[in-house]
Amino acid sequence: MKRKKRYKFIVEKTATGFSAFSNDLPVFTTGKTMTELQNNLLEALELALEPDSQNLSSNNIELEIDLKQFFQYYRVINSKYLAERIGMNPTLFSHYVNGHKKPSSKQTTRILNGLNEVGRELANLQFVN
What we know:
Elements: E1 7-14, E2 17-21, E3 28-31, H1 34-49, E4 61-64, H2 67-73, H3 79-85, H4 90-97, H5 105-123
Protein name: Transcriptional regulator
InterPro entries: TTHA1013/TTHA0281-like
């Protein structure tokens, strides 16, 4: 089975939402929300890759955002709780979240795995009526 090509975009938080650009393609766009940004990226990518864009989907888009900007947007996530949950020193984690220090790739993976675990748990929840 042929693996779908993935296109990497760097996301930055702006005063009005988000912007995203690629270092590999002449593609840039903005959006007020992450969902709008992804939709706009798909459209911009389709235009840039015409006529080879027939099988493109959001699965072809890979977004990168730094921890500080992530926690600015997803303020509902308590960074102190997440640090404790993944067994990371909350003060060190705070330095990552505030942009005072940059996490290693190992620490970044650890944080992302913790976020993914919480996301899976939330996606499987149901409330009792």
